[in-house]
Specification:
Blueprint (H helix, E strand, L loop, with lengths): L2 E4 L2 E4 L3 E2 L9 H17 L3 E3 L7 H9 L7 E6 L4 H15 L4 E6 L5 H13 L3 E7 L6 H9 L5 E5 L11 H8 L2 E5 L6 H7 L3
Parallel strand pairs: 3-4, 4-5, 5-6, 6-7, 7-8, 8-9
Antiparallel strand pairs: 1-2
């Protein structure tokens, strides 16, 4: 496995997204997800990304990685409005993951980011999270994202990037390189359409 630097964290070039695949509930499905984690650990694809908006994903990850936390790098997000609700959602992520430390905590789609950033900075200072990140699924948010990146208060960004969507190459990626901000990507196969095109008969 090849590795890259995400902020100050060394991560594999291939990680595991869990938006739909880990939102399950049956015992059989949980057993399969634990097998997926087994394979990820064996192949060193140990960076796992989740969010409260992914249904039961955080809980299933917590159950699937129990007893093996030292082999896994966890990333998740806060996605709500208001200080109290944000603190409650963040605390729930720790409980569901069954951990007292989360490697990357992101503010999803910049929602109420000014409020949540203060909370995450406090948790980082307490040693409970490693890196603070911002995410957005749309290139229309890049103007705001660039301003936040220039503030020096975040360590990572998560943005759309694939062979069909390269807008971030103009300003976002150069600024990230200049400021030492780690980048991980949404939709590298463009939600599967690139794979489907590659597999389609000529």
């Amino acid at each position: 496995m090849e590795w890259r630097t995400l902020g100050k964290l060394q991560v594999p070039v291939i990680g595991l997204g869990t938006a739909r695949t880990f939102d399950v509930s049956s015992s059989a499905d949980l057993a399969v997800r634990r097998q997926v984690i087994d394979r990820c650990i064996a192949q060193q694809a140990t960076f796992i990304d989740s969010s409260p908006m992914y249904g039961r994903s955080e809980q299933v990850i917590g159950l699937s990685t129990e007893g093996r936390r030292q082999h896994i790098q966890l990333a998740t997000k806060v996605w709500c409005q208001g200080k109290a609700q944000g603190e409650a959602q963040i605390a729930q992520s720790f409980r569901l993951f069954k951990t007292d430390y989360i490697d990357v905590f992101q503010i999803h789609n910049l929602l109420d980011w000014q409020t949540h950033l203060l909370t995450l900075e406090r948790l980082r200072d307490q040693g409970r999270i490693g890196l603070i990140g911002m995410t957005h699924y749309s290139t229309r948010a890049y103007r705001s994202l660039l301003e936040i990146m220039r503030s020096g208060r975040i360590d990572t960004i998560q943005i759309p990037y694939n062979v069909c969507e390269r807008t971030c190459e103009d300003r976002v990626l150069p600024l990230a390189a200049e400021r030492g901000i780690g980048v991980h990507c949404y939709g590298t196969p463009r939600q599967g359409t690139l794979r489907q095109r590659a597999a389609a008969p000529a």
